[in-house]
């Protein structure tokens, strides 16, 4: 697999390809063109930032039978998709800021897909040709708003509510990989992607019947059972297969904590 990401050195942001501990700086976003500048930096000297900049951030719901059961829902017969705000993206080691501490706000571990080519009306059999790579994602969800508003856009789109990363991997076979989340070192979610009701190719095909996917777009493919509330001070670790884990901490949003919100 090749490994890509977004990085920051002081006030400078750039995309790069990671080879061992060497980060090769790229002239453009990697999902548009892999063009090394020749500059090589050490990963240890860099801050890992959000690895992709999607025009659309699409989420899939009710894609594992055990999660459908715990949410007391029924299968729809087609994938359930909605949009999250790209401004909700948060990097590895970023801090999730709970917007309403009096609400139940849950974690949801997910496999994320990064699109590599413009895709419209794509058949499932060809769908993987339009994938650039994969990463780890978290869908943080305000359940109180989700229940009261009867739609998912706002409750999942607060700033910091979509941690993603640390890196994006190409040429990975994600048809049957492990997906786990630990909260304060305690295992809360554990499954394999082969248990998804709708596979990655089926999700892509379904989405492209309604809308055009562009390079860099991200799809979160659903979460298994075990979702639970986050609390001030929590440490979350999300892992897929043997990839480096996505780690995030949790706090109450500062303006709320200060009584402003």
Elements, N to C (H/E)? EEEEEEHEEEEEEEHEEEHEEEEH
Strand runs, count: 20
Helix content: under 10%
Distance linking N and C termini: 44 Å
Silhouette: globular
Largest sheet: 12 strands, mixed
Helices, by number, come to: 4
Mean pLDDT: 96
Strand content: 35-45%
Q: Write down the Rg.
A: 18 Å
Structural class: mainly beta
Oligomer: single chain
Question: Low-confidence parts, pLDDT < 50 over ≥5 residues?
Answer: none
Structure write-up:
By secondary structure, the protein is mainly beta. The protein is 10% helix and 40% strand. The strands form 3 sheets. Strands 1, 2, 3, 4, 5, 6, 7, 8, 11, 12, 14 and 17 form a 12-stranded mixed sheet that branches. A hairpin with a 2-residue loop joins strand 15 (178-183) and strand 16. It is globular and about 55 Å long. The protein starts with a strand and ends with a helix.
Features:
single chain; mainly beta; 12-stranded mixed sheet; 5-stranded mixed sheet; 20 strands; 40% strand
Task: Break the fold down into its secondary structure elements and pairings.
Blueprint: E1 3-9, E2 12-19, E3 22-26, E4 36-42, E5 47-49, E6 57-61, H1 65-70, E7 80-84, E8 89-90, E9 95-98, E10 105-107, E11 109-115, E12 131-138, E13 141-142, H2 143-149, E14 162-169, E15 178-183, E16 186-192, H3 200-208, E17 218-220, E18 228-229, E19 235-240, E20 246-252, H4 254-257
Parallel strand pairs: 6-17, 8-14, 9-20
Antiparallel strand pairs: 1-2, 1-5, 1-14, 2-3, 3-4, 6-7, 10-13, 10-18, 11-12, 11-17, 12-14, 15-16, 15-19, 19-20
